[in-house]
Specification:
2 strands, two-stranded antiparallel ribbon, mainly alpha
Amino acid sequence: MARAGPPAGDARVTHEDFVAAYQAGRLRVRIDRDAAARFVSGRAMLPLVMLPILGLGVALALVGYLIAGISVFVLALILRFVVKRGSDGFLLWRALRDAEFYQQVRAAGVLGIEEA
């Protein structure tokens, strides 16, 4: 038996209604890329991970391992770019699978829902 849920644009859309409407194609999901990148960076503690890696790259370059130091530094920058670039897809994937996470991204204003 199908139950009537709130309209798709309503802020009170439950996780179950969100998943069902998304799979049926009845709603359009809007994710703010900048906010998503900040959200993922904060949740993954990206700055705390990146600083030691960047420092290691600089230290290697200073003690004579120039190529290795530059490589580590560049790889750290690429990792940061990849995490921020893919954050919107990750947020949607996780929001479809985890009700608590869905509520967190909705509360943070990262994920918006519009009727299709």
